[in-house]
Amino acid sequence: MAATSHLFKENARRAMLDERLQGALDKLKAGFRVKRREAMARLPEFDALRDAARDVKDHTLAHLDLYLEAFEAQVRAQGGHVHWCRDAAEARQAVLDICRRAGARTVTKGKSMVAEEVELNPFLERNGIEPVETDLGEYIIQLRREPPSHIIAPAIHLRKDDVAQAFRRSHEGLAEERSLEQPRELLDEARAVLRERFLAADVGITGANFLIAENGASVIVTNEGNGDLTQILPRVHVVLTGIEKVVPTMEDATTLLRVLARSATGQEFTSYVTFSAGPRRADDPDGPEEFHVVLLDNGRSALLGGPFRDALRCIRCAACLNHCPIYANVGGHAYGWVYSGPIGAVLTPAFVGLEEAVDLPNASSLCGRCEEVCPVRIPLPRMLREWRTLAFGRRITPARERWGLALWGWLAARPRAYRAASALAAWGLARLTRRKGALERLPFAKGWTAARDLPAPEGRTFMNEWRRGRRR
Amino acid sequence: MKAREDILHSIRSALGGGEAAPARARTVEDRLARPRPNVVPARGARPPAARAALFVEMAEAAAATVARVSDWAAVPAAVREYLDAHDLPRRARVAPALKHLDWRDMASGFGPAEAGDAVGVSRAHAGVAETGTLVLLSGTETPTTLNFLVDVQVVALAAADIVGSYEAVWESLRAAGRAVPRTINLVTGPSRTADIEQTLMLGAHGPRRLHIVVVDAAP
After folding, report:
1. Closest CB to B131 among A248, A268, A279
2. Mean pLDDT of B113-126
3. 20 to 30 A Cα–Cα from A106, which one of A30, A87, A407, B32?
4. Chain-chain contact of B195 with A265 (C-beta, under 8 angstroms)
5. Rounded distance, CA A232 to CA A34, Å?
6. B16 touching A (Cβ < 8 Å)
7. CA–CA separation, B179 vs B169, rounded Å?
8. Burial class (CB in 10 A: 0-12, 13-18, 19+), B198
9. What percent of chain B has pLDDT over 90?
10. Rounded to whole angstroms, what are the CA distances from A17 to A64, A233, A331?
11. How confident is the model at residue A334 (pLDDT cuts 50, 70, 90)?
12. Complex-level ipTM
């Protein structure tokens, strides 16, 4: 999708004034956060599993070329195909070619963030192939022509009446008097409509949570069962995923699965975890006749060599979104690209360019909750700081901010000058406010004082007071 | 093949330095040839009876229902009882693995599920006590569509096949020389979604209900 991350400040302001969105985001706290905490409490080994999960990913990334080759050999040995794609355009084309060879008119799709990343749906549509999202949340936002606002709950920004409206607009033959007030009624309507689409699809496209080098299996995780209907009913199954998804063995995937569900939804295990390897075998009565894996690089291999390598450990559980005070205030769309929340603030500048997305790493108080909850212990705050440093070095940070920081840096390295300057500032600010005790306006800080007052200093610095023995 | 070489080259140059090539290759070969468990929660490690009890407890916590019978011959009656209790028609698509049982007129056929089938009955390869998870393998005897296309999924599971952890299943599959069938389905409860206002609802696209019949007799 075309990034609108440069509009972050504007998007965020609008999101914070959007009462419907705020109501939806409030539910995060009682929902995902509480459930994750409870799941953690039930499993004494949870933290040890997180260490093990991090180690599995680190080991794999350090040997990524070899595990990808091993995975490819296994897929091919079973009669499947692997397509390597350097960028989004190649991945879209690879999927289109497979669909064309299959003579496909409609394709069903399981939820895939990589498909969003490469803008697969509009591309297929332009080429005369109808893609149908089958995850309920993805289906709803497809009807509304919106991007997902959350990694695992793509329609989290919507209310049930938004969903009802989308169905009434798009579902032909839906009776006017048919009630769509309850979530249950909406679900049943979607289930009935999508069941027909599952049965009619020529090709099924899914993402992959993991790829297993040991045996060439791809792993998907769903609660709805939509990913399975997508991949077992059509004649052709296409797995579209990133190169960083490979892990060595079933045991390694198992370790990651144990932390994935608990971190994401607080479930003990996701309802459906499916390993599929190759096309149907000679004695299989069902399953696809063709199996393709489309492997996307799109800048991932370049990340391996730099300060953002650890971000490739991400298993897309969304725990960092669910626990982020910024995400909880602005929602996912404000971030302006596919991935939102702390992991989005780290990945987006890498994928769409720091110039476009410089506001994202800045929109963080670096409170560290994201790193605390990450199942693979990605040091997200460190990476956000890393982007800030890069932005400063490349002069992307606005000039006034850079001068301010440079001045502060100069002072901070010179204690005498620093004390003199802070004494002057404390004295000046105290004089400015006189008896009111607070400043309503401050030159150069309108953005800050527009919504709050600045408590004024007493007139002397902490260091002065300390020397006079008044502060202990 | 240009893209493949470019990506592998890009990875190798990003990783640069580090371990020497032969050592890296050996590390990878060893890890793939001898898969080892990482951290395995202690929860599932208990004697067989307690393990089966934990399986039932965890499956029920995931909104499955469980019945226990003392031998395989009792499975059709258990299925009938379940269908009657839920006002469901006594018609089920049955996995060939269970064809030898006496289904009378209850079986609409033995094989993969078809559109419109309300009830499917299959047999699990194993159960994992840790999370109350069924392990279902694809193949002639147990078609995968029976796990997803039906409204009501019924699965028979031998108590003797209940293990503590997923790792125990991978190990026994490898020992039996059939590392991966085309599809391995790990199923924990019926399908569900919380995509509308974070309201949890059962019965999304897959089965609305999951009923497990645990068979306590030897196979």
Report:
1. A268
2. 96
3. A87
4. no
5. 35
6. yes
7. 10
8. middle
9. 90
10. 45, 44, 12
11. very high
12. 0.97
